[in-house]
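tl;dr need the bound structure. longer version: we got a ligand (adenosine-5'-diphosphate) that a collaborator sent over and nobodys looked at where it sits. i said id run it. heres the input, straight from their email, havent touched it
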Amino acid sequence: MIEKLGILQGDITKLATDAIVNAANSSLLGGGGVDGAIHRAAGPQLLEECRSLRGCNTGEAKITKGYNLPAKWIIHTVGPIWSNGRSGEPEALRSCYLECFKLAVKHDIKTIAFPAISCGVYGFPVDQAARIAIGTTIEFLKREQSLEGVSFVCFGDQDYETYVEVFGELC
Ligand code: ADP
């Protein structure tokens, strides 16, 4: 099961997994960070499809095609904005991962890559986010066999080191 997990460093838009996950905002109409990078790389048709989805609530997820990306699908999820950790942020972040997995199973997606949802402008502490990301994934993989590979893609050196450390603790 653990052999299905990987931690990578780099640009998620370059990955040829079946699906990549976008850390979107609730409008689903693009933004900065990884969201901006995904829209730029996927091309303008992505925005057109996103417009038809009419937004997405925090902790939920919606799927689109990948357009010009190497990935076939994009799963857009809206992470919580960190305030103090006692306003439901951990539960909402966990829900993001679970909702993405639900869509993955529904669309017969075998390989999926996640960015560090909420760890950019949304301010979630990376060590806590990594624990939720990896912990929720391990739990899911124990009960659902269809996913073959889950990658966590870290952009910066520090995030990568934190993920590797948490991975060592949990696996
Ligand atoms: P959020 O609003 O959910 O915090 P951000 O896009 O600001 O989303 O940041 C989420 C994470 O994505 C951050 O850790 C950021 O470093 C990372 N990131 C930014 N660009 C990319 C990219 N091209 N590929 C992978 N991760 C990225």
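gonna send this back to them w/ a short note. Residues 11-13, 23, 33-35, 37, 79, 115-122, 153, 155-156, 159 surround adenosine-5'-diphosphate (CB under 6 Å).
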